[in-house]
Amino acid sequence: MAQSTKRIGLYPGTFDPMTAGHVDIIRRSMKLVDELVIAVAIAKSKGPLFTLEERVEMIEEAADAMQGDGMASVRVLPFDNLLVQLAKEVGASVILRGLRTVTDFEYEYQMVGMNSRLEPDVETIFLMAEARHQAVSSTLVREIAKMGGDISHFVVPSVVERMRKKLAEKK
Ligand code: ADP
To answer: How wide is the angle at C-alpha 119 spanned by C-alphas 8 and 21, nearest 5°?
Structure first.
């Protein structure tokens, strides 16, 4: 039987919430692979603001809106196991990560070093978001929102609305 040549990419993250930086990296990744698996870390220990289901939904909505010619099909999955194990399970040959700052670089450098020892066949590809999205982080978006700031520059409109509801629930 002919081997499938479908290239599967894995983009992991916490997405609490999904930001314009994440959307930018998802769009770039969708142009590079045939199927993109976006893995949402359950991240119980981090005590995420948004539930796993909410984070999965945000990504599914954004990915649906970017579907089109030359764009990968997208699958969104929760995960709490070892990343290279998940890559094997879903048949991914590449892990996609976004790079922002030198601090990201140091952490990612270590991760690649360790992951390539665990699973030499899986490559990691780093992508940079458009300049105006590079400084955006979920942590800052949560902080700005909690202090009543305008997050609409940093997240898609549906996430602005979800954040509004979430903070109202918490009051
Ligand atoms: P993690 O807990 O894995 O860091 P995040 O949701 O914060 O999860 O980020 C997921 C991935 O998206 C990481 O590779 C991160 O570097 C990347 N990323 C997040 N924000 C941006 C951004 N503004 N520009 C480029 N990459 C980003």
So the answer is: 50
